[in-house]
Structure formats: C-alpha cells, structure tokens
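Quick one:
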Amino acid sequence: MPKASFTIEQEAIMHDRATLSPPWRIGVDIGGTFTDLVLIDAKGLLRQHKASTTTNDPSEGVIDVLRLAAEAAGLSTASLLGGCSHFVHGSTIATNTLLEGKGAKVGLLVTEGFRDSLEIRRGMRSDPWDHRTPFPPVLVPRSLRLPIRERTDKAGQSLVPLDDESVRRAVAEMQSRGVEAVAIAFLNSFISSQHEHECKEVVRSLWPDVWVYASSDMVRMVGEYERTSTVVLNAYVAPRVVPYLRLLETRLKQCGLKRPLLLMQSNGGVVSVQQVEQRPASLMLSGPSAGASALRVCAKAIGSQDLISIEIGGTSCDVILTDETGAGMTNSTEVNGYHLALPAVDIHTVSAGGGTIARRDQGGMLRAGPHGAGAFPGPACYARGGVDPTVTDAQLVLGRLQSGRYGGGLISLDKNLAEEAINNRIASPSGLTTVHAAAGIVRLMEQEVIHAVEKVSVERGFDPSRFTLVAVGGAGAMHGASVARALGCRTVFVPRVAGVFCAFGMCTADARQDVVSSWLKPLATTSASDIDEFLNRLAEETRQRFLDEGFAPEDITIERALELQYKGQQSSVTVPVQETNISAIRSAFLEQFRRLYAHDQGLDEIDITGARAVGSVRLGFTEQTSCEWTRREIEPTELRPAYSEDIGDFKETPVFEGDALKYGDTIAGPALVESSTTTVIVPEGCHLEVDPGSNFLIHINYMPRASS
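Output:
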C-alpha cells in the first residue's frame, strides 16, 4: 500500500490528544461562507478548523479561525503563530473586488492612436454563436484612456521618443478626475519596455503617492489587448488588495507570527507580500489554484499521477487535471469576462455547487444554475430568508443530508423549508412530486460537472476512464461516485481533508516564480545556442526573484520551455526543454500536437512564439508512515431512508460516522458516510475502503471476487 502523507486528528477529540510538535505550517483559505484553516506539525499531524468568513473585513475571519486552532491545541494565539514555520494565505479578495465592481478608479495611458483597444477587445467572442450577451463594462471609461505621444516599432526601436509634456497633461487630467491608480500600456512594450518605464518615472515624480503599473513589468507577450487588460485589472484591484495584505501581515506579526506572510498565487505557488504588491492580479485564482499542490499529495497516496479533481463548493465546481507532467498551466485566463494574461493553473470552473439555484425557464423546462444563492441568504434550508430551491435543498429532501447543524455548528439545515421551496417553485408548477423534482435538480447539476470534466479531458485528448476522480470541497463527495460512473472512472478518491482541500494545498505548496516572454523565431533557422541563451536569460531572472526573497541558490530549481506552433496557427503548445536539441524539441512538439489534435502536419514550418522559465523552491512537507491496518466489523450509527438513483425510490441506507473510520475499514454501498466537513455517498454496487492516510477510496460498481 502507498505511504500516507499525513495523519489527521479529529476536532471532536483534539483536547485529549498529544500536543503539537513544532515547527508547524498553517494554511488559511478564505471562501464565501467559511474561512478554512489547516495545520500540519513537524510529525505530520494534521488539524482542520472552520470559522465564518467576515465579508466586511476578511482579516477578522482569519484571526477568528486562528483563535479556534489555538484553543483546540491548548495554546495561546501568540504561541500558535510563534511556532509556525510557514503561514500561507489564499484569499478571494482580488476576485471579489472585480466581481463586485468595487475596484479603484483607474486611468490608462496608451500609445497615441490606440485609445480604444481596451474596449474593442480582440474583436471576437469566445462563443461566436453568442452575439447578444453584452461584454462586461470597460474598467476604464474613454475619458480616462489618455493618449501619450510615443512609438516603438516591432523590432523594439524607438520611432517617436516619449513626450514628457503629454504625460504631464494626462497626469493633471487624472488628478482632477479623482483617479486612484494608473496603468500604462504602450504598443510593442513586450519587446522594449523603455518608454513605459520612462513614463512610469514621470508619473511617480509628478504624483508620488499614486498606484502606477506598467504592462511590461507584468506581461511580456504578444497581444496588445491582453497586456492592456492585464495591467488595468492589476491597477483596478491593487488599492483594495495590497492594503488588506499589509494590514493582515501587520496584525499577524502583532499576534506573534515571526515569519513573513506567504500568499497563494494563481500559478499554484507561494510568494511574499512584498512581491505580490507588484502583481496583485496574480491572486485572482489564489484559492482554487492551491488544489494543484494538494493533488500532488493525493497522487502519492493513490500511487498514480493521473487525477481529475472536482472541487464542489457553494456556488461553483473547479476542475483540474494532472498527469505525469503535473497540473496543466495556462498563460491566459478569463475572470468574469475580463482577460488576464498571467501564468495560472488551468482550472475550468462551472456554476455547479450546493447553492446552485434551480428554476423553471419560460418553456417550463427545469434548469439548474447559473445563479447561486450565495452564503446569505443561502439555500432555503439555511433558514436565513432564502426562498429559491438549490442543490443542497434537493439533497436534504432526498435524505442524503438531514436536518441539523453542520460545519461545526456554523450552519443549520431545515428539511421542511427545503421541501417547501422545491414544491412551490418547481414541483407544483411542473406537476411533479417534490422528490422527483429534487432528483431532477441533482441530475442537472451533476451533468454540468460531467461536461466540465470532459472539457479538461476528452476535449484535450485524455480518456477520463484512466483517471482517478478526486472529489473535494464541501459537496464534492456527494456527487463524486455518480459523476465517476458517467465518465467511466473506476475509482473516486475522497481525501479526509476534502472540506478544507485548498487550505491543505496551501500547507503543501512550494514557492514559485514564472517568467514568460514572447520570442518570435522560426524553429528551423534558430540555432541551439540562441535558444539556450534566451532561455538562460529568463532562468536567471527567475533565479534572481528567489534570491531577492532570501532563498538559498542551491534550493532553487528552474525548468525551461518553449511555446511552439505550426506557422499561421493561433494556439501554441508548450514543450519542456531540458537539453537544447532542435531535433528533440521538434519531436516533443509533434507528440504534444498529436495528443491534442489527433494528427500532425508533418514537416510543415514550426514557429517559436515564446519561452518561459518556471522556478520553484521546495518548502518541505513532513511525511509519515502508514497508520496501522485494522480488521473489524463496523456498525452504522443509524439507518435512514435515502433516495437511490438505481431504483428511483427511497431505500433504508446505513449511515456511518466518517471520523471514526480507520485504515482497513470497508463499507458496501448503498451507504452514507458523514464526516466533520463533508458527506460521502456510496451508491449501490460500489465499495468504500479506508486507506493508510484515513482517506476514502470508492471503487465504482465494485463486485467482490468469488472465494477460492
């Protein structure tokens, strides 16, 4: 059996267990409803806690959950933080600033003649058939998109020197209009940043206290719109995000933290507050990206790197695929319709969660999503004033959840309210029973998750049946087996930390830096030495960022890669480069291309479009030997009528206390396993076993072998 990477100590019995072994690391993830904390000590002991998220001041939720963790460990908050070697924080503050439209008033300085590039976008839609849905509002109105006289040509040569006077006029205009942050995006600045940096210095000399960012400091890639959109997003969130991070770090130090606060980036790695201040937009996927790090630990426990995770929370489902090359990465993401050209874990998100609202459309058809109930008022069963039926309400009606307190008492569910909402809004108008309406809501939501998994697997040349499905998030384990059956996956892995998966990922993440640059060259006529020189230049920049953070040179690992495409194509393929051999690079490109598109174009001309250096520093993670295997008969805590998809009706279903299960325990479906942070559904014909790390493995349609 594979070795477990941690041991979990359950919250209910923490006070009776041994004290923590310093130093420990702490990961804190702020979500819409809960602020999650995971602590892993020097011997690999893991503890998990939840507190309510305080939306007005998220730092209060962080302090609250730290107090809970300290109390459970029999320590003061100062002692808990004092014994911490790494404190990693993931937050939705950057994303929420954008989603809620509460960012700064931004002024944009652009090359004269290109004032409207931000609003024109790329001149096309991601879905060419959807020509009616309006684009999101432009973050900088035309009156604050001010032209600057300057011009750099495609070779990086200055055609028109920067006109300081035009910068002064623009600054005066922005000051009079109450601008809070300035973004600079000049044409061809990805080749030469000279004019942008000169402009930045002029702005700072005239306006020392303004937030000012240049696109060339963030994105050195072809794409005027993408670079402009990215630097505008960065300026938009900076005055809200950076002061919060500075305040939080100060508060944590006052409370006893002796080490720098580390932040989870969209690329799946951690970085200091000081470096994030230059790129706060790199926190847009701060929480979900931690799932990639947590999946590396899952891969060790399972003994396979072929994993697809479905993290289902209150309003959305995040899907990540990993294989022997690790988690997929992307140079461009879209957040609420705005484009961000920064390296990020390739996460596909759909509106499918416990709070997804069900409704009847104009034709009377049942729909699930895309709107969600949020944390307040939340699903109808929360008894906070919500009246719309949600997936959580449906699961309660189907007996898979029950009335009572969940999440350590942070929420309480009321089945009567759930039934009333589904009956009034869905069942009665449709001529359905409440139960059948609830079952339909769940099926529709799961279909969205299935399509999301197919998006990252089938559409990219991967057969999902060869992957283990990792079901995480508060609601992931309720849908994992059903989704896996539809996809042909043979196994579902439910980590015991499923309900705090991202906070756990923060505890296991490495420090990471990405340096990406456009480089337009034909592969056939570019020498190996030129490729080596360019890649090494990026690698040295990556290495210097780590040295500036205080990391030792011997701890830094750099991986290099080229972006390649057939001449005239739109999308590039990332090809790792270990040894600079043109023939090997071409072969690797053809292999990747065939996997993605099921064919290649042979000896057609291949272009280099860009290069990247990815640096990482292992922050260390304590591994522990397996728990002892037990062989025993386990009894359910109760029998409860729960709806079964297989028979289309209720069936007496045994319910087990998940936190009491041990390595070696096995459960045949149908069954429900209720733990402190999630509920696991084991369908008829499936089989659950507990692995050495106290995680759950569900074998889909498991059939016991005949005895010999």
